[in-house]
Amino acid sequence: MTANHDVVAVILKDHRTMEELFRRMRSVEADRAEALQKFSALLIAHAEAEESEVYGALKRFKNVDDEEVEHGAEEHTEGNEALLALLEVAEVGSEEWDERLEDLSKAVSHHIDEEERTILNGARENVPDERRAELGVAFLREREKHLAADCGSIENVRAVLHAHGED
Fold this sequence. Notes:
Elements: H1 7-26, H2 32-58, H3 66-87, H4 95-126, H5 129-148, H6 154-163
């Protein structure tokens, strides 16, 4: 199996990209608005692809904690709510923007840490390589579909939250 299709490796790569985008959003020397735009698109595409292509499939394997999978989906909603709150701030770099950025960072960092320790370790240990590769391909296909549809726009973030029952 090539590592570039292993669903665990693909998800971990996205997590590292998100962490780098957080660093750029905090830097006064970076294009913070551009970093937020990229982060928003990646967060939405990543979460939607996990929920539609990965989480359900992982629940079929014993020793992958179903409660953690459900909790992961709940944390996606929390992250999306924090993302929307940041996107709604008009002035990039303002005090309010920085506060909401930290709220988003806390929500997403908590989710990344928990997901890596529970769901992804469970998948790595209990899901056969071939199935992880299939899930990686499905995840990437779904993620790209969302990225191509401008999924990080403020309108779409609102629509995603509405679809998940959060207003």
